[in-house]
Amino acid sequence: MQPAGLTGKRAMRRAGCVLSLVAVMLLAAPPTPVTLHTSSPGFRPWTFPLTATVSGVAVADIVTGSSADSGAEQHHPRHMVKVWLTKHRGRTFRVIQLPRCQHMEAVIAYNRRGETKEEAKERLEGVAVSTGAFHHSRSMALADFYQVDGCILSSATTGRWFFAIMADGSVDLSGDYGRLKHAPGVNALALGQRLAPVLQRDGFSTAFMNRATDRMALGMSHDYIFIVQGRSDIWRLADFMQKTLPVHVALNCDGGHVVRGKAPVHIVFRWRDSSPEAQPERATVPPQRDPLRVSSAPTKAEG
Predict the structure, then answer these.
(1) 0.85 exceeded by the pTM?
(2) Do 296 and 169 share a structural domain?
C-alpha cells in the first residue's frame, strides 16, 4: 500500500497533463465565428472571428453607403455621409461630410425652369445636394461659366473659381481655366468667392459680404467634401470654413432665397453605381421640363 501523499501527487500530475492536452487542442482548433444579434430595429447581424479585434460606434446622424474593401487603398475615406449642427461666432451651421473618392459621384443638375435643391436631389437619387452658380432671379439665366463635356453653355464672365468634374469622375475646386476650359469630358460650374484658405472678395461688394442671409458653401480636403449651410454673413462663414473644417479650399455657393427656393442649377452627390451597364451621368436636364439636352446619358427620372 502506497503512502497517501504519493497518491495525491500522482493524481495532480495526471490532472495537469489532461489540462495541458486540452489547452493544446483548443489552441490548434480554428477560431469559431460568433454572430452578434440585437433587437434594435434595422440592425444587421455581423460576424467576426474570436481572434479579431473589433471596435464600433453607433451614431444617429451617420448613414452608411456601399462598403469598401478594407486595406485595398491606404487612407481611403470611410464610406459614410455624416451630418451635424454646430455653432461658430454666434451662427449655427449645418455640415454634411462626404467621402471624396471614386465611389461618390457628382452630377450638375441643370433645369432652365428651376427646381428646389430637394427636388434635384430626389430626381437624381442623391445623398446630398448643394446650391450652385449665381443666376438671374427671374429668367433663371446663368450669370457665369458653365461647361458640359468641354462644351461651354454659359461664358466665363468673372474669372471666379469653379466646381469641376473631371473626365474620370473625380471632383475639384479650381481656378485653372487654361487647363480645364474646353477640356474634353470636363464639366464645370463657376461658383462664388473663395472662402478658404484665405477670404477673397472676387468682385463682391462689402454690402453683400456684410448681409446675414441664407448661405451655402462647398469645401474640400484630400479625403472629404463638405457642404455647409447656415444663416450668416460672408466673414463668419469664411472664418468657420478656415478654422473649423479641415479644408484646403472652399467656395461660396449661391445663397439667399435659392437655398429654400428654386434655382436652375444644383450640385448633387450620390453613391456611384458600380454595375457594368451603368453609364456616367455628370450633367442633366429633365427633358419633360426643358428641350435643351446637355447630356446624352438618361437621367434616373427617365428610367
Answers:
(1) no
(2) yes
